[in-house]
Amino acid sequence: MSDNETRQWRLASRPTGEPTDENFELATVPRPEPGPGEVLVRTLYLSVDPYMRGRMRDAESYAEPWGVGEPMEAGVVGEVVESNHDGFEPGDVATGNLLWADHAVADGDELRRVDPDLAPVSTALGVLGMPGITGFFGMTDVADPDPGDTVVVSAAAGAVGSVAGQVAAIAGARVVGVAGSDEKCDWLTDDLGFDAAVNYDTTDDLQAAFAETCPDGVDAYFDNVGGPITDAVWGQLNRNARVAVCGQISLYNATEQPTGPRKLGQLIQTRATVEGFLVGDYQDRWGHALERLAGFIQAGDLRYEESVVDGLENAPDAFLGLFEGENVGKQLVRVGERE
Ligand code: NDP
């Protein structure tokens, strides 16, 4: 690749069921040049996220489908190479919605500056970025636990879940996490201060596991996964419980529409409230969430982890790993180093 070229991943074809390497294509293209008001960014880290599976599908959703043959978008933290925007100069670190690429241009108005002295710049894609903000608002505004409440969080060792659970603990709740390995469960209870954790992969009777870990029932459930885990948590909901539906990753590769919701009957007896939410709806309050999250980190109340895969060429593997639970905390791809 020459200096005036760049690599970018494109959607080669739409997957049926679980995506494979064949759905992705790495192209070498001329390096883009920034137009008026635009900024050329060299990628340092790019974020792979479960919602991207929805963008591979040709179906209406809250995020536009990617076109076959088109470059794929991603949250990126990068270094400004060239700027035609007053707010940025070469060497600045910026974050925004760019591409699975070594370089990309964006409208400077759509980028946010990242202060490299405040925290490692990669956190702008995780705990101090979209996933952290999702965990924060989903817990404070939707699940909204009172002190002493029992809160269950699924995919608790992931980017969103690990923040959501710790925010609940900061609010004084008793927090039970669900994750797919003993190592993850130990991380939740030993390092993040969760009160208990359920390894759904080695538990035959999830109902019994939640009955045991939540002896006073469940007052709030932060759902990242759907499917059998959610079915089992619903069996323990207390009267007036709140369910914050954040994600349904167990269903993202489904080839048929799932039947259900299967447990609606339980809402009658419990008078529980189930509410879906999207982090984008909180855009005008992102600054508030970032301030609170940074404060929690500084106070030692919020810990985070990042799983980093090296090399743009390995971005599809990093993405596919999300569905196998390979990540602890935020899954990132390191594409370049700061100069
Ligand atoms: P994570 O970092 O949590 O990564 C995904 C995790 O999901 C994996 O590590 C894996 O952990 C778990 N998982 C994968 N497949 C299954 C399965 N079949 N059953 C149970 N668990 C599974 O990703 P994010 O934190 O980025 O996202 C978490 C959820 O939040 C996703 O559903 C995502 O779509 C949603 N989301 C929603 C937003 C909103 O605005 N509503 C914004 C951002 C994310 P394990 O080893 O424990 O199985």
Automatic annotation (TrEMBL):
<feature type="region of interest" description="Disordered">
    <location>
        <begin position="1"/>
        <end position="35"/>
    </location>
</feature>
<dbReference type="InterPro" id="IPR036291">
    <property type="entry name" value="NAD(P)-bd_dom_sf"/>
</dbReference>
<feature type="domain" description="Enoyl reductase (ER)">
    <location>
        <begin position="20"/>
        <end position="333"/>
    </location>
</feature>
<dbReference type="Pfam" id="PF00107">
    <property type="entry name" value="ADH_zinc_N"/>
</dbReference>
<protein>
    <submittedName>
        <fullName>NADP-dependent oxidoreductase</fullName>
    </submittedName>
</protein>
<dbReference type="InterPro" id="IPR045010">
    <property type="entry name" value="MDR_fam"/>
</dbReference>
<dbReference type="InterPro" id="IPR013149">
    <property type="entry name" value="ADH-like_C"/>
</dbReference>
<dbReference type="Pfam" id="PF16884">
    <property type="entry name" value="ADH_N_2"/>
</dbReference>
<dbReference type="InterPro" id="IPR041694">
    <property type="entry name" value="ADH_N_2"/>
</dbReference>
<dbReference type="InterPro" id="IPR011032">
    <property type="entry name" value="GroES-like_sf"/>
</dbReference>
<dbReference type="InterPro" id="IPR020843">
    <property type="entry name" value="ER"/>
</dbReference>
<keyword id="KW-0560">Oxidoreductase</keyword>
